[in-house]
Specification:
Blueprint: E1 4-7, H1 23-35, H2 39-42, E2 45-47, E3 53-55, H3 57-66, E4 70-75, H4 81-84
Parallel strand pairs: 2-4
Antiparallel strand pairs: 1-4, 2-3
Helix pairs in contact: 1-3
């Protein structure tokens, strides 16, 4: 599946995101994106059919903090609720 570009504002954070990172690791993530934005294409954000982020919630937060308006994503459709929680 090929990653496509999307406006960051169209992506919805997952309210049930089970993963969090420390403030220090979040700062490192922001710095990493700022210094190597090409990684966003290599490792795109994964969303479901409703544009809810299944993988990359912290990257989405970092993009918003940096004011980046576009990123890469892959949309996965027809996942079960259990698969979406993985």
């Amino acid at each position: 599946m090929k990653a496509e570009k999307i406006e960051v504002s169209k992506l919805k954070p997952n309210p049930d995101n089970p993963r969090t990172i420390s403030k220090d690791k979040f700062k490192k993530l922001v710095k990493s994106i700022k210094e190597f934005p090409q990684m966003l294409k290599i490792r795109p954000i994964v969303v479901d059919e409703n544009m809810i982020v299944l993988g990359g919630n912290m990257r989405l937060q970092a993009l918003k903090k940096l004011g980046i308006e576009e990123t890469y994503y892959i949309q996965e459709k027809d996942l079960t609720p259990e698969q979406k929680e993985q």
